[in-house]
Amino acid sequence: MFWHVFKYRLKCLLRDRITLFWTLIFPLVLGTLFHFTFGHLTSDAEGFEAIKTAVIDDESYRGNTPFQEVLQALAEPGRDQFLDLVIVPAEEAERLLDEGSVVGVIRVGEDMELMVRRRGIRQSILKSFLDTYSQTMNTAQAIAVENPAASFEPRLSFTEEISFSGAKPDTNLGYFYALIAMTCVYGSYWGIRNTMHLQADQSPQGARRSIAPTRKTRIVLSDTLAALVITLGEVSLLLTYVHFAFGISFGDQLGLILLTSLVGSASGVALGNVVGTSVRGDENLKYVVLLIANLTLSFLAGLMWAPMKDMVSQRFPLLGYLNPAALIADCFYSLHIYSTLQRFWINIGVLCLITVVLSLVSAIHLRRERYASL
Amino acid sequence: MQVFRSYFKILRSNRVAILWNLGVFMVLAVFFSTTAPETNEDMFEPTRTRIAVINRDPGGVLAEGLEKHLEQVGQRVFLNDDEEELQDALFYRRVQYIAIIPEGFSQDFMEGNEGKVETVVIPNSTMSYYMDMSVDAFLNTARLHNVHGRSHTQTDLVRLVLSDLDTHTRVVMKQSGVSTDSEPNYQYFFNYCAYALLAMIVSGISSTMIAFNRPDLYMRNRCAPIPQRKVSLQILAGHGIFALACWSLLMILAMLLYGRSLSGSGLTLFYFGNTLAFTMVCLSIGFLLGDIIKNHNAQTGAVQVITLGLNFLGGVFVPQEVMSQSVLAVARFLPSFWFVQGNELITSLSDFSKASIMPVYTSILTQAGFAIAIAAVALLLRKERRMSQFA
Question: Tens of pLDDT along B154-198?
Fold first, then answer.
């Protein structure tokens, strides 16, 4: 009987095209939009490119051979190219600056001068470069005065890039984690659909099923399983889609990714069950409550602004642990960035706990329900 | 006027959806425009990268000197020497650069056995390049003094280096014209208007059209003793007034939030005009959608997809300058692209000469073109269907 009910529940839910749209098509569309607008953002916006600079071609520039040599070395095309240089007369340089085709204009002189139109990291780098040049010249001169025979070695690099786990700290992944979390939590729309068809005062189907000679626990369990199977299927589809279409990597621990999806989907369905059973009112009210809950949870998990999740867990750690969406997103994050699994298991544990508590609450509301009239 | 009156009756019954969109917009607009930094443009100040310095060489005077130097260049965020904490902070950009000074660094350095500062960075980022330069500047100068025997103690060395590094190139900020290059908060607001206008107007207009297009209702109205032309005109007037009302509401909001800085910029009317052009686009889209779609469920889905799609791809949520070229090439075929472009052009207006204002007008007219084209398609489809309906 269990599988019979399950089968028809599955069919019934899958025919609900609107819920299917919101729980499957909508996340896919959102994922696509995410990818096209900022899929490449970190590398482009934060990535270093040779800085477009104009140097004013005048007497003092032509007279300053050491500076010319330094500039030439830095403008050498290649992977380490630092400056993208044009050497032009003063008016031309200012025109280029006004147009925005160069970041800054260098005027060579006794003291160097930099002309810019706005503040920014590239401008700061140019200033820092000129500072370092002048300062090194001064230091070297001071040394040469004391010791005319001193010879100078080339500058060294004193930094070495290391990485704790080899994972790239790409904030934009946070949006995809939040999107998957949202899809899991959207399983609540299947959960609430089920409760509408379970309670006698909510729908004719509910009334009919309440008097059917099948045990209520069996109906509830098979309904929930159907919702869970659909949600898990949707989440898996989304994962497959963003992985293969956009190359978003979730790490190689497939088993743990599936576990997160499963537990996440379960928490979503449980959330829907709770709202469907414990909010008193008509269908519209329940859906509005659920919609607001889902949006709030997803927002706090970083769907609209990825650093949100981190901000919440920094300032209100408890809130971070109570939000299933944030926990799901954090599971994916932990799998990606940490070399150990401690935080992952804590998240999964809390997520299971939330699911159990939510399920218990809806069970209390559902059992032994009696109606004076329908 | 019956049609006109019932238009607003229908609208009233859909107020929850419309107000919901307005609410979401207001939360987003206020949230994002308050988080956007407001900078003073008159003086040049170097960008301060958020950095964490983990000093594993306690007591090393040289290491402390380096710490001090980096604190001057960057904006220091204090973090514990804990791997997970550091990774979290870097991933979510609480810090953009982490420098770890290894144990025994100062002593080794003095003995000519120079070690390296370990850095955890956003790979290839401009910020990490900048901070690497600062670390190198400090240590190369220290090495220069050290190799040439100019100091014998770490304290001496640090004093020498810090005084050397206190060399500052003169930076001239070139200003030309009325506005600066920073993006003022209200630019974000006007960009987000695209979201609010689309969501409100498209859902409002399509809701009323779905109601008027219900076959039984439509047929009854057709045989009512009122000319079809009047019905259409009244519905159209309803659309226009509703769209204008949404637009005015947002513009009033803009004046309330940014009135002072806006009127100071002298650009208010340009922003208003650009937003009005986009309002027309929204009206046409709502008109088209209302004709194609039959029921409310499909409508909510379509409104969300259209709104989010146009906003994301047009560069409302993510600045156009950082979007990839290929996406932008496609985005040119979307009206929202021209709306955002218009806002950006207006913000960067440096004078009101014909040559600088022309591009702004181009953006506005392009949007008007989109509005007309979409409306034409809608009318064509409508005519086609009406013909087949009663054939």
Answer: 898 999 899 888 888 888 887 654 444 455 778 888 998 999 999
- What domains can be seen in chain B, in order of their start residue? 2-40+180-389 (no CATH), 50-165 (3.40.1710.10)
pLDDT of residue B41: 47
B129: distance to nearest CA of chain A, Å? 7
CATH number (3.20.20.140, 3.10.20.30, 3.10.450.50, 3.40.190.10) of A50-146 reads: 3.40.190.10
Backbone φ and ψ of A75, nearest 5°: -95, 5
Prediction ipTM score: 0.80
Using DSSP, state whether A85 is helix, strand or coil.
Answer: strand
Least CB–CB distance from B119: residue in A123, A161, A174 = A161
Q: Is some CB atom of chain B closer than 8 A to the CB atom of A285?
A: no
The pTM of the full predicted model, rounded to 2 decimals, is 0.84
CB contact under 8 A, B45 and A119: yes
How do the domains of chain A map onto residue ranges? Answer: 2-42+172-366, 50-146
Chain B residues touching A112 at Cβ < 8 A: 169-170
Shortest Cα distance, chain A CAs vs residue B88, angstroms: 8
Asked if A184 contacts A261 with a C-beta cutoff of 8 angstroms, the reply is yes
List the structure tokens of A70.
């330094």
Q: Which of B108, B117, B133 to mutate to test the interface with A (most CBs of A within 10 A)?
A: B133
